[in-house]
Specification:
Layout (H helix, E strand, L loop, with lengths): L3 H10 L8 E3 L10 E7 L15 H6 L1 E14 L5 E15 L17 H14 L10 E12 L7 E15 L1
């Protein structure tokens, strides 16, 4: 089952397909001319089990990936009675393969989407919803995007952007 914080991230970035050439699904599932994207919960998927980005080349030919995993979930006593501070961190990755390798990232935007534009759309959607996110069972008040890094320079044909989404707030026990 997808963690509520991970689901919130996926629900929040769902809007990036509005008014863009992006569409959720694999190549066979999206309209002609749309750039396919798949959402993957890394806590619930075997796609990422022990596989580096190079081993997922076949998957990246089918679509770009946005994956998320709940990597930290902590509560600490925050006051009187049943008040607890709550914090969760969701690790988010945006990945793609260059169109030269039959992927869906193209710096010119003709045979895919420019990768910088792609990850900025994801980041902008999260920043637009960074106050009082509606996460089931928690009273988070703020979302922070931290440790953002574009690792695309590490590879010749692969694109990889990573950011931590930190949700902070309160939980009543």
């Amino acid at each position: 089952m997808t963690a509520p914080e991970t689901q919130w991230v996926f629900d929040t970035i769902a809007s990036i397909t509005d008014g863009t050439p992006l569409a959720w699904g694999a190549v066979a599932d999206v309209p002609d001319g749309a750039v396919p994207i798949r959402r993957v919960d890394r806590n619930e998927s075997d796609i990422y089990d022990g596989a580096g980005i190079r081993k997922r080349k076949g998957d990246l030919k089918k679509s770009n990936y946005i994956s998320a995993a709940l990597v930290d979930d902590d509560e600490s006593h925050g006051g009187f009675g049943d008040e607890y501070n709550a914090e969760a961190i969701v690790s988010l990755r945006v990945e793609g393969l260059t169109c030269r390798e039959h992927g869906h990232v193209d710096p010119d935007g003709e045979d895919g989407i420019d990768f910088t534009t792609f990850y900025r759309l994801v980041r902008d959607a999260l920043q637009a919803a960074d106050e009082h996110p509606a996460v089931a069972g928690r009273g988070y008040h703020t979302v922070f995007l931290e440790n953002g890094t574009n690792r695309s320079r590490d590879y010749a044909d692969f694109y990889d952007y990573r950011v931590d989404v930190r949700l902070t707030g309160f939980a009543d026990s």
